[in-house]
Amino acid sequence: MWLQVFFLCLSCLTLSSQSQAQDRASLRRSNDATGRCHYTFTVASPEESSCSRSSMTPEMDGVSSRLTLLEALVSQLIAGVDGGTGTGMGVNAEEGLQEAYSKVTGERNQLQQDKERLNRQVQELQRRLDELSQEAESLRQKPCQQTHISGGTQRENRPASDPAYEFGNGSYQEMKAEVTEVPASRLIPEGNHNSTGCGELQSVADPVLHRKADSITGKYGVWLQDPEPQGPNYPNKTVWRIDTVGKDVRQLFAYEDMDQFSRGFPMKVLVLPEPVESTGATMYRGSLYYQRKRSRTLIRYDLASESLASRLDLPHAGFHGQHPYSWGGYTDIDLVADEQGLWAIYSTSKAKGAIVISQLDPESLEVRKSWETNIRKNTVANAFMVCGRLYTVASYTAPNTTINYMFDTATGVGRAVAVPFKNKYRYNSMVDYNHAQRKLYAWDNFHMVTYDIRLGRASHGSN
What we know:
four-stranded antiparallel β-sheet, alpha+beta, 25% helix, rod-shaped, five-stranded antiparallel β-sheet
């Protein structure tokens, strides 16, 4: 088909040349001896028998130019008609480029959206950081003589789930405790104690709040003061605290006094050599006594040397959930101290879950003597020792409960009692006695509180 087009165009060129020259010129085509095609123009002129080459040059140049254009046109036609494949490949390439462009555009838009989202998150984190910085700065600028914080102000920094919301009424809450070193006998009314300053528990006052934990790790823990400190580094006004929520509890916080403790400013943080199990630790004569995690091993950590002083397994003691208090928390072994020394409150398989009391050597941790009671450990919420007598708390959640049982190691006899006791914040996980302060220390649902107690003349009745 393209040859027909070529000859058609060539015929058009010939006719055009003949019409321009009219009778004066003609075009003739012939092959030479080698088979090549020659075009010959013949011009009839009465004046000249021949024409010079220069007179023919413009017309020949025009024909040559047109032939060149025709050849280019034929080449383009050949390329387009050749099976139709050239055009098809062009279309596919264009579609591929369009698809790639659309994909790149989509990815660019997605990246732009991710960038905007990350910028928003960074701005939100920066906003929160600024708020925390402002709050920390405001706490640092509070005057040291401030001893009361209104209930309304306290609520601003409490979580919505804080049980204190149920009890807050806008009244002022005491946040500072004055500690004065006096003989223990002066804390008991005259005629209400025997010659040793000891007696049976008569009453427990309402709890006094000293500090509220500010994070989930403070749900429960241990806080106390050493009733018989050793050395000048940590006197009896030093306050100690362990947050026992976590997989590897090792930090022991030291506060200079009760005021610094209430404000949340520790003077030192000690790292214990072995992890702590639950809330059964106690402080006595310059050492921290505690149960090693997931074991019946007892550890004495010396505060002066900041090192492990002694360790020993408590024979046959249940541990890690075998015989806990009713609130759980792996409270199988509870170490306490009173006027008569260091004690362990626990149970064994032989005792079938009944509370066992053992008096321990404060240096070696060896058992000096043991007593088995007739009250099961998992039926009471907590226990503590006062003047060689065991006392148990009936409930850890009831706001108004009782101290319901007493066992006297001097007589080996236990009996039911009914001393009113308040769990103000409804989750009391630790109760410990300090015989120097003649107070109970407790950790009640993020709140660290103390109870004043009153001792009376020992009763000799028994069940």
